[in-house]
Amino acid sequence: MRDEIQNLLRKIPPMDELLSRPWVNEVEELLGRRALKSVFADVIGELRLALREGTCEAIDVAAIEQEARARLLAKASPSLHPVINATGVVVHTNLGRSVLPQEALDAVRLSSERYSTLEYRLDVGERGERNDHVEWLLSQVTGADAALVVNNNAAAVLLCLAALAKDKESVVSRGELVEIGGSFRIPDVMAFAGTRMVEVGTTNRTHLSDYAKAVTESTALLLKVHPSNYRIVGFHAEVEREALAALAREKELIFLEDLGSGVVADLAASGLGSETTVAQSLMAGVDLVTFSGDKLLGGPQIGVVAGRKQLIDRLRRFPLLRALRVDKMTLAALEAVLRLYLRGQEGTIPTVAMLTLSLDALKRRADVLASMIATRCPEADVDVIPVEDAVGGGAYPEQPLQGWGVALTLPSVSSGTLQRRLRLGEPAVVAAAEKDRVVFHVRTLLEGDAGLLAAALGAQAEGRGSGCGS
Ligand SMILES: *Cc1c(COP(=O)(O)O)cnc(C)c1O
């Protein structure tokens, strides 16, 4: 047995031999020799282990080369692979949340291909502030006196708590001690910021008197948190912002709200008018509101703190800010997106556009997609069906977002198999499934995606000869 394994191990070609294969030169140009060696070493190492463990019983040199080549080619192309999002989830965190509008892409390029005034004032020839590029725009869009941008909303909440309530108490309703996903948990963030969490009320009901009774000499802050993708229904009570704001004023406390997805545009057209906007929260008396840039705002990944200038100024002076600052590309993209709002052109921001598409428009898109697929892939059984889309990003939980989609089955291919093939295709398509049908939600398709999607299905048909994709 041992001898047999030794024999097999000896059949593995030496590294030099593998490196002298003709195809290797081409890959070496893409990645360099060192990377090449390291991938070969990995593949050989895994093979040796498999031989010793008995999970592999023969050496196939061609297979070794093929495996190494596939891994190398994958490493040579961008790891952030473009994806066609056919899930109908608009703010899909795993798929990169918001797609940026063209203006933002142009701005990113302009900001990075040359030096810029990121932290420089041309008028006086001295150091400037990177936040200055967006503060006025944010104030215009939210109605806030002042605003500060950090790396994401989690950072915004952390900064506010650490700068304004460290070693003091922060009062929060038990109904709002939520976990957002990706391990953002309010109690943990509070602990990390060094503020003492004082929980009030119960999971389903919290009253103004609960807050009032909890306030002591050591209280710094009242915290309100958007419960995001969690909702309490039935016997439920929370305190109005106006009442909490009055309490905060009376007791000289700071009223901070983590609003999460940060609705800025009027989304009433989509039937999604129920979410509190940043401006409404500030109008109701909240001192500081935090929200994400890449959720409903439709911009790059950032977090905003918007609100009273005197408090924002305290945040500006807090040392942690330096560790949370955003890059010039991000600021450039944000600036461009905010200007679209000012000009009343937010309808051209992909996230906003997707959310405000009418049912008629979605139905037309689904019809077009279905006929494209039928042409490219005649074996497919295609149906245009009503579907339920989702806002995503923790906004509007449970609120149905009616949409249209195309359901598809292929002869003798399970929906799971087809989903997998589409994910691994070029371009990659991430689609939903329902019973044993793959479902393409058209809301989240971008211009040109329908054609690509139909072509991806058609390519399977041609490539495999017999049935489409089988
Ligand atoms: C999404 C969300 C966060 C986290 O925001 P990021 O920008 O992802 O860091 C925090 N709080 C609430 C209420 C959220 O919805």
Question: In a few lines, what is going on in this structure?
Answer:
The protein is 43% helix and 18% strand.
Note down, in words, how this protein is organized.
With 470 residues, the chain is of the alpha/beta class. It is 43% helix and 18% strand. The protein has helices at 2-11, 15-19, 22-31, 33-53, 61-76, 102-112, 132-142, 153-165, 186-193, 208-214, 241-251, 278-283, 309-317, 328-342, 350-355, 359-376, 415-424, 449-464; strands at 83-86, 89-91, 120-121, 126-127, 146-150, 169-173, 196-200, 219-225, 254-260, 288-292, 303-307, 381-392, 401-409, 428-434, 437-441. Strand 6, helix 9 and strand 7 (196-200) form a beta-alpha-beta unit. It is globular and about 80 Å long. The two termini are 41 Å apart. Residues 465-470 have low confidence and may be disordered. Pyridoxal-5'-phosphate is lined by residues 152-154, 180, 184, 225-226, 228, 258, 260-261, 292, 303, 393-394.
Name some characteristics of this structure.
single chain, 470 residues, alpha/beta, seven-stranded mixed beta sheet, six-stranded mixed beta sheet, 18 helices, 15 strands, 18% strand, globular, disordered C terminus, binds pyridoxal-5'-phosphate
